[in-house]
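Let us practice reading a record.
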Amino acid sequence: MTAMQAFATSERPAPPRPVSFEDFLAWAGEDTSAEWVDGEIVLMSPGSADHQRLLAFLYGLLVAYVTQRQLGELFLPPFLMRLVSRPSGREPDLLFVADEHADRLRSAYLDGPADLVVEIVSPESDERDHGAKFVEYEAAGIPEYWLIDPLRETAFFHELGADGRYHIGSVDADGFYHSTVLSGFRLRVAWLWQRPLPPVSEVVLQTEA
């Protein structure tokens, strides 16, 4: 979707281009799912039911772990992450901000990189998630980027190396990915492809390594 197409679908007139981040925030308000990229506004397509179910499942597992250990906060859309590497204001499906980086939080956005970002691939976001966002998140120094692709039943857990590049995190012999950002947290990849998804209450205890 081009910026002009995005503008045409909105009930509110768009601010003059190029759009500043501040004007974008004022235009979007609290109920608009949109991203700001290189001074352009791009509206996000609504998530499918399966997308929402998978997101709720991941959020349930992560929020239980993070809250119990008081590690930081998790955020769902619409909540922006402002990056200076492109520049952009992205709206990840899920992001985690560690307590030590709480100073980056603003009322309507995160001013800087999150510690962990999760994107769930949809047909509309396929190229963006695998391409532009991968490059931006790596350049911004986001330590961990989970790219969950239910279309292909693949999950890539990108971990930022000492060289400033993403490397694929490994899955152990039992099918668990062990997070480097959330120490002690593990995720069984096979859970992501189960239909229906397993109840969070039945698997949450298995997330502790």
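A brief commentary: The chain has two domains: 1-43, 47-207.
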